[in-house]
Amino acid sequence: MHSPVFASDSRTTVQNSRLSNQIDDLIEQAKKKEGVVSAPLATDAEFMRRVSLDLTGKIPPVAELRLFLTDQDPLKREKLINRLLSSPGFVVHFTNTWRDILLPEAATDLQTRGQIPEFDAWLRSQLQENVHYDELVRKIIDAPLGATTNRQVARNSQDPTPRAYYITKQLKPENLAAGTSRAFLGVRIECAQCHDHPFDDWKQHQFWQYAAFFSNIDQRQQNAVNATDVREVLGKPQIKIPDTNRLVDATFLDGAQPEWDKEQMNPRTRLSDWVTSAQNPYFAKATANRVWSLFFGRGIVDPVDDFSSTNHASHPELLELLARRFQEQHYDLKYLIREITNSQTYQLTSKQTDPSQSRVEWYGKMPTRGLTAEQIFASLVQATGFFRQTTESNALLVGAGTNTPQAEFYELFQSDSENQLDPKASILQALALMNGTFITNATSLEQSDVFTAIVDFPTLSVEKKIEAFYLTTLSRFPTEAESQRLTAYVSAGKSDADRTHAYSDLFWALLNSSEFLLNH
Questions:
Q1: Which one of 171, 187, 252, 278 has the minimum C-beta count within 10 Å?
Q2: Would the pTM count as exceeding 0.85?
Q3: Who wins on pLDDT, 416 or 489?
């Protein structure tokens, strides 16, 4: 960490315009330099499906889609983004998103999943109140763990806290050092845990100096199930580097040490102040980079948690800009998300129209991305009307009982891959849906509200019913060729039962298509 937070000479001539326009200017400059031809803008249907999946975690309701497609307001896309950002679905989806980022252990460790409901409840409350990201991170790092010399967490408190962050990392300084540096600073200092980093500048003693901020948690209580049972001492922390006789003092990653006053402040409080400081050279950049990756499948620095001297940004000036604006807006996540999704870069079609668009890092077109387990399940429920659930139950998908449809679905589709741009795994897992009871029931006349409503509607023609199935699953109208072919297929049925079976086949095929199971 030797560079200043932001380079002063990176400001562009469009400094006073809104961030979304600045994003487009910088991306266009890079594309022109690389000889990349931009794809056209996405259609309204393609855009609404994409932004609904990205902001609320599920495809749009058909009624809202129809209204959007007929709306002639030139600002309708911007208004849609604002409406989705203010919706309960945004809170639910981004609770899932940030939980997966902050508690990656929950995907593979069954013992940690019991901590998920409280963490989700806490995180959901922060997002509902639009708590800015620096404050949210401070609350996580400085989460109440138990008795100290100057504070005592009430054991009977019902208020949710982020202490699950510590419990899932077993309260171990080395785990907490690795987790906080990756999630909040975008650096993999754990590679220096046992020896100096082989490819970067991090030294072993730097890792343990940083881990020392978490070393005042009473070691004898590290296996405690309830974090309020943990005792934490205050004052200047030290830690012994394993397999050596060397003690190191708590030191920030920039080499500075806190001044330890007589009031014996909690070391984690000092660390949280430094991590979120405007002078921290990584915090704003790492966060802006991660948010960018949520919408494009890759970071400007990629992987997003590997800021290093050997892993350069594809668009360094853009990253500087995003980080600076994010900081100027007091780390408001919604501001950053709003500007990214309002950019034409985000709103390009995913259909390749020129060979130069094949390299995703130049953003010639919108990349196709895989969906998370939560997104697929929520979209299936939206499309079929089967197993309607509240937004709260969807938010607790990971922590749900093992016999619920959500939990079974999560087990089938969970992935520890961070690469959204390689959706092969999602498609292979989706093949298991083809003969599964969920899809069978969801496409049946007896159990699917949507299927029943479309098939039994007395005044709808075959063509209009096919159109309705496309809108409810793929969020678009069928092409003329699709409509003609499927109309002939359904009309070939000799009885109502035959035609119902044909509609069921169509519904099933659309739900199992890659177009449904990918974000594009």
A1: 278
A2: yes
A3: 489
